[in-house]
Amino acid sequence: MSFLSYLINGVSLGSVYAIIALGYTMVYGIAKMLNFAHGDIIMVGGYAAFLAMVNAGLSPLIGVLVSIVVCTLLGVVIERIAYKPLRMAPPLAVLITAIGVSYFLQNLALLLFGADTKTFKSVISFKGISLAGGALQISGVTIVTIAACIVIVVGLSLFINKTRAGQAMLAVSEDRGAAQLMGINVNKTIALTFAIGSALAAIAGVLLCSAYPSLNPYTGAMPGIKAFVAAVFGGIGSVPGAMVGGILLGIIEILAKAYISSQLADAIVFAMLIIILLVKPTGIFGKKIQEKV
Amino acid sequence: MRHLQKTTKSNFITYGIVILTAVIIQILSSAGAVSSLIGGLLVPLCAYMILAISLNLVVGILGDLSLGHAGFMCVGAFASAFFSKMTAGTMPDGLRFFFALLIGAAAAGLFGILIGIPVLRLRGDYLAIVTLAFGEIIKNVINVFFIGRDSSGLHFSMKDSVALNLDSTGEVIVNGPQGINGTPKDSTFLIGMFLLLIALIIILNLINSRAGRAIMSIRDDRIAAESIGINITKFKLMAFSISAALAGVAGVLYAHNLSSLVASPKSFGYNMSIMILVFVVLGGIGNIRGSLIAAFILTLLPEMLRGLSNYRMLIYAIVLILMMIFNWSKGGGRLKEMVAERLRGLRKPRTKEVK
């Protein structure tokens, strides 16, 4: 039974990674940049919900909404100020800017909220279920996280494939110049992508802090990097890939923690990334890109 | 000096600046004009400057972003500290430190090659994230290592120090998360500056050599470089492993300045790599002398202005973003031209000597 419960925990953690990885993969697919600050938006989302619920005494549902609004705005503002002027810059410059933004958010949070870890109050009051006569406990957070992940992936797939804005995103990710010639507002599409990605990061932040209730300025950094690993695993730019990659990564991490070594779990996850990139750099669902001279 | 080439002249100016700085600081500190706070920073300062120029070799000359530089420093630091602890008392201090430097550089260089072979096949963002991953793996793995020594030899464990089963003469050398304690304090400011000078000579000569031009051609256009017969893998690996070995030297310097060496996120983690990257970016990507000056100013300035130290990291972050926007955006480009125009106006027009 313990294996099964590890597996369920893995799927739950993996669902959080999947939600974060969706944001990464969309931004990477459309803006062609690695948004290093994505993980730190999770942290901001956590703090926003924390302040709304604990300091302002709002209900958990409002807390989640506040967190989503704050992160969406933050994502759009970051894109406008830091990334938009660099549309034509070489990738190295954009990457360094993104690292700068990530570092900025971490240290701003450090100055504003202090380095001490805050105990996050779970937003989910749902009790959870116990199966097989109490041998298998599944907590409410686990169920809600997995359900949220499924809803988001289905919703996002429908949005991308069925709406005009979603089609515009696909077009921009395929060929930015051609999309512009077809009358698509590229800047608006990229801003929309950042908005959606950041909103997802907010949801992931709240879920992550509900499952692992400790919040500090570096909370988002590691899950952010691991979600990137998940996105690469599934094939960057692919929505189902992000979900599969995220869940697989979550399972690997929890099983490594349980059966190998809790200190080496991170090292094992990173080793996975390196192996994937060497064996199949385009990931499970990725497309092969031909280099043109 | 008239017959020297422009680059040679520029290199000698850089060496001169380093020697002059070393002499001035040494005179100041022997005259007692250096506060103990700054005095304690002098050896780390040398280490940071070596790290900055070695990272600039990868970022500026090779054109790949490495975020795992602190990992190589960590390898050099731990390999050399382990050696120094093992051989303490068996040879003179100077000789031991010399060997420690060689071992640190070799270990980090070896890791550079081992990591470089798979990693350098990747490009851009992937390369950055994989180097970051490697840096974290190195740090994590060192944190679970326990090595002890007793009368029957060396004992290894990956669990805890009790699992080493040491007898009564036993001594724990590498103590997992507590790291290595009691490394001999062999580093001094002058040795640091001397090592910096050697690192500079290696890097500047590499840049101006045939190999250096091959490396820069890869940076400027990989496909064109490959099509004229430049062995991409070889030259990339060369730059990467030299950079790693020099980072290892910086690690040796750093380790032999501390009484307890811990692979903590603060000293060897991602933050350290970012700090070095800030030095490189602020000094100008590809500009070796710039990296030196940026590392020097950014290390000493926050200590001199105490009020600033809380905001140091925030300022670093803003510096990174602003430098990139200033250098690469359209508006920034215009601003740059305007400033250059002003400066040109201030300066007197140069008169050329004609023979």
TrEMBL record, chain A:
Subcellular location: Cell membrane
Membrane topology, from the record: Multi-pass membrane protein
Pfam families associated with the record: BPD_transp_2 (PF02653)
GO biological process: D-alanine transmembrane transport; L-alanine transport; L-isoleucine import across plasma membrane
Keywords associated with the record: Amino-acid transport, Cell inner membrane, Cell membrane, Membrane, Transmembrane, Transmembrane helix, Transport
The keyword Disulfide bond belongs to this UniProt entry's keyword annotation: no
Name this protein carries in UniProt: Branched-chain amino acid ABC transporter permease
Cellular component GO terms held in the UniProt record: plasma membrane
Lineage: Bacteria, Bacillati, Bacillota, Clostridia, Lachnospirales
Transmembrane segments: 6-27, 60-78, 90-115, 135-160, 190-215, 227-252, 264-285
GO function term, MF aspect, one: L-phenylalanine transmembrane transporter activity
InterPro entries tied to this protein: ABC_transp_permease (IPR001851), BCAA_transport_permease (IPR052157)
Key word Transmembrane helix present: yes
Protein family membership: Belongs to the binding-protein-dependent transport system permease family. LivHM subfamily.
Automatic annotation (TrEMBL), chain B:
Subcellular location: Cell membrane
Main location, first listed in the record: membrane
CDD domains: TM_PBP1_LivM_like (cd06581)
GO CC, any one term: plasma membrane
Membrane topology: Multi-pass membrane protein
Transmembrane segments: 12-31, 37-58, 65-83, 95-119, 126-148, 189-207, 237-256, 276-301, 313-329
Keyword Cell membrane: yes
Domain of life: Bacteria
GO molecular-function term, one example from the UniProt record: branched-chain amino acid transmembrane transporter activity
Keywords, alphabetical: Cell membrane, Membrane, Transmembrane, Transmembrane helix
Protein name according to UniProt: Branched-chain amino acid ABC transporter permease
Organism: Lientehia hominis
